[in-house]
Amino acid sequence: MSNEITIGAGFSLYSSLMWGATGIWISYLSNLSLGTILFYRFLISLLITSIIIYLTSQTLSLTKRAVCCGAALCCYYTFATTAFLLANMVDVALIISTTPVFIIGFEFFKGVKPSLNKCVGAISALLGSTLVIVGSATIDQSAVNDDSHVLVGLICALGAAITMAVFSLMSASKTVNATSVNFWSYLLGLGLLLSWSVSASELQSPDVHQAGLLFALVLFSTISAGMAYKYACQLAGPSTAAIVRLSTPMFAVLLSFLILDRGLSLTHFIGAPFILMGVYWVLHS
Questions:
Q1: Quick one: pLDDT at residue 279?
Q2: Which segment of 25-29, 35-39, 271-275 scores lowest on mean pLDDT?
Q3: For the chain, where are the alpha helices, taking DSSP H only?
Q4: Alpha-carbon distance 262 to 93, whole Å?
Q5: How many angstroms separate the CA atoms of 5 and 1, rounded?
Q6: How far is residue 21 from each of residues 127, 221, 257, measured CA to CA in Å?
Q7: What angle do CA 273, 250, 219 make, to 5 degrees?
Q8: Nearest alpha-carbon partner for 72 in 178, 184, 158
Q9: Are the C-beta atoms of residues 276 and 97 closer than 8 Å to each other?
Q10: Which of 48, 63, 232, 239 lies at 20 to 30 Å from 167 by C-alpha?
């Protein structure tokens, strides 16, 4: 590996760990509403990023690519936050790991024909994702309860995988900086959230403990992770960054076991190999 690719892989590994930890923060914030978590995630991220831009005298890039990258990242954070809040964090991490498959799919529509190995890998990964979704909904009987939205969370995880693929492809360009992309992501997220779904009366006030968790979610699993992955795609390319991000489910499993004391179910053991091997074949064909 060249020095640039090695550095890019390191950035991707960091983002993988931080995004794998998202489920930990969310699990301790589960007594807050989804709208409240998203509101403070985007608001605090926007404020901190604005301060960074001011202190470093950076020029905010207002280009179509920068805004589109920000929109894709905004969608990813919205889908991922929803998924981690409603479903098991390991399930969510496994499904989001199908991102490379969607990267190959988007490239196909752009005229890049996939090899047989890539097709087999894509089918394998999507099969594993389906097994995780269906198996989790079957094992967790609360998934069919009117008060539970586990299945919705797993579908949102697929949405997060797709939007991360879009972001990965667009962010490979070096024409926009990571700080600008993050800024537009948080501004768009906050604006849409306030416009469409969250009113002041619906927002909950976090206590001191919850505020600390929200800041951790923002600093580690939002701002730094988003910037690191942008640099990873820039330096190492979308495919290499996606390969390294295959470690996200493993980090999620480890953190879930160490911190939340949650183990793996039979569904994970069946679905995970299909997903991880499928993505491996896609990227190594």
A1: 66
A2: 271-275
A3: 3-20, 22-28, 34-55, 64-86, 89-96, 99-109, 116-139, 150-170, 178-196, 208-218, 224-236, 238-244, 248-259, 266-283
A4: 14
A5: 6
A6: 25, 7, 12
A7: 145
A8: 184
A9: yes
A10: 48
Q: What is the pLDDT of residue 213?
A: 92
The pLDDT, as a whole number, for residue 146 is 43
Q: How many angstroms separate the CA atoms of 121 and 229, rounded?
A: 24
What's the N-to-C CA distance of the chain in angstroms? 18
Nearest to 117 by CA among 140, 137, 134, 100: 100
Lookup: tokens for 213: 């968790």
Residue type at 276 in one-letter notation = L
**Three-state SS at 200:** helix
- Burial environment of residue 53 by CB neighbours within 10 A (0 to 12, 13 to 18, 19 or more): middle
Q: What are phi and psi of 48, to 5 degrees?
A: -65, -45
Q: From CA 43, how far away is CA 123, in angstroms rounded?
A: 39
Identify the pLDDT of residue 147: 43
| Alpha carbons 237 and 150: distance in angstroms, whole number | 34
Give the number of C-alpha atoms closer than 13 A to the C-alpha of residue 65, restricted to the C-beta side: 12
Q: Tens digit of pLDDT for each residue in 191-248?
A: 988 776 655 556 788 889 999 999 999 999 999 988 898 888 888 777 677 767 767 7
Other beta carbons within 10 angstroms of residue 106's beta carbon come to 16
CA 84, distance to chain mean position in Å, is: 10
Alpha-carbon distance 210 to 218, whole Å? Answer: 12
